[in-house]
């Protein structure tokens, strides 16, 4: 009875894990909507989504080898479909160097390495060893999925901007890691359980960074003082450049006005004298 009760709880938590993981897959939708509107990926990175697609492919293979793991199959099939859509959108709007880099990673990781793992796992290990080998491979790459956002974390720290690290993605990633940890615990599957410890850790780190750089760190824009204080005059004919400070310009203006006043006074006196000379008797 106790084992049956534990299995029921595992199924319930597994269904909950499917729902939350589905929300994790949908969390980047606002980011990709911005990419679609701008017709540009900006500083957006494709690596986390390539690694997530690869991990989902591995977990589907693991679930088929293990058998009786319908919940793992369903959510990872959905994950493969959604991640593929994201990658296609990225390839559509990314600059040429980013598209080339992404295509290389797809060929090396999602095609080449996955095919190698698939063939070596089917041919080399036998019996229960096959599941162990595949489980360790899945566990390592699940850890890499959670570590993939390190590139985004580095970008957030460098640019002091959280534009490409949505808070909801980090939040649902953390909750998903907690749920799948308990699913692995109840089903006695260490390959599902242990990677989610790392997932929880990175999720918390991302949320903390989001709060820091969204609400606590302010960007300071410093305008160069030269733009205000120096007037640059290009003398094309002479082939030289003259830099005059604002103070010198002010002094020059005052001297010019003083000269104009003096000249005006002289002109007034001359006008009067001339007026006396030509006036009628």
Automatic annotation (TrEMBL):
Swiss-Prot/TrEMBL keywords: Cell membrane, Membrane, Repeat, Sugar transport, Transmembrane, Transmembrane helix, Transport
Cellular compartment(s): Cell membrane
Topology of this chain in the membrane: Multi-pass membrane protein
Region (Disordered): 253-281
Molecular function terms from GO: sugar transmembrane transporter activity
Residues spanning the membrane: 6-26, 47-65, 71-93, 105-127, 133-153, 165-186, 192-213
Top-rank taxon, per record: Eukaryota
UniProt cross-references to InterPro entries, sorted A to Z: SWEET, SWEET_rpt
GO CC aspect terms: plasma membrane
Protein function: Mediates both low-affinity uptake and efflux of sugar across the membrane. Mediates both low-affinity uptake and efflux of sugar across the plasma membrane.
PANTHER family registered for this protein in UniProt: OS09G0508250 PROTEIN, RAG1-ACTIVATING PROTEIN 1
Family: Belongs to the SWEET sugar transporter family.
Protein name: Bidirectional sugar transporter SWEET
Classification lineage: Eukaryota, Viridiplantae, Streptophyta, Embryophyta, Tracheophyta
